[in-house]
Amino acid sequence: MSELKKDLPFALLAFVFWGAWAYYANSEAGFSVAWVSALSQGLFSMMMTFFIGFVTVALFHRFASPLTQLLMPSLLVLMMTSVCLSLLHVAIGTPELLLTISPALAVGYLFSLFKTIQIKKGGSHE
User: Fold this and answer.
1) Which long-range contacts (CB under 8 A, 24 or more apart) does 70-75 make?
2) HSE-CB for 21 with a 13 A CA cutoff
3) Which pTM was predicted?
4) d(Cα 74, Cα 111) in Å, to the nearest integer?
5) How is the chain split into domains, by residue range?
6) At what angle do helices 97-120 and 2-25 cross, to 10 degrees?
7) What local confidence, expressed as pLDDT, does residue 6 receive?
8) I need a surface site. Which of 62, 94, 122, 124 has the fewest CB within 10 A?
9) What's the rounded Cα separation, in Å, for the pair 76 and 102?
C-alpha cells in the first residue's frame, strides 16, 4: 500500500497533465472529440502510473543480470502501455493518435526507469 501512496501525486498529475495534453492535441477535431480523448488519456495515464510502479517492481526481481534488471522492466512496461493506449485511442476514434500518446509514453518509460533505479539503489523492495 505504501507504493500506491507514493505514486498518488504522480498519478493525479498524470491525469491532469496528459488529459490536458490530449485535449490540446485533438482540439481541432471539435469539443466532444477532444473531451473524450482527454478524459480517456487522463484516466488511462492515472491508472498506468499505478500499474507502472507495481509492474516495474515485480519485473525487476525476475531478472538476474544487473543490465537486464535496469532495462527490461521499463521496456516491457513501455511495450504493454503502447499497445493498450493505442488500442484505447483507436477504439474511441482519437484523430491525432501519435501526437496524443507519444509524449505520455516517453514520460511513462522514464518514470519506470526512475522506479527501477530506485529499486536498484534499495529504495523499494515490494
Assistant:
1) 70/113, 70/116, 70/117, 70/120, 73/112, 73/115, 73/116, 74/109, 74/112, 74/113, 74/116, 75/109
2) 20
3) 0.83
4) 8
5) 2-120
6) 160
7) 80
8) 122
9) 16
Full pLDDT tens readout for the chain, 126 residues = 576 788 889 899 999 999 999 999 999 999 999 999 999 999 999 999 888 888 888 899 899 898 999 899 999 999 999 999 999 999 999 999 999 999 999 998 998 899 899 888 885 554
Sole residue written with cell 507514493: 6
- What angle (nearest 5°) sits at the alpha carbon of residue 49, between those of residues 45 and 54? 145
79, three cell numbers:
511495450
Are the CB atoms for 19 and 42 separated by under 8 Å?
yes
Q: Which amino acid is at 92?
A: I
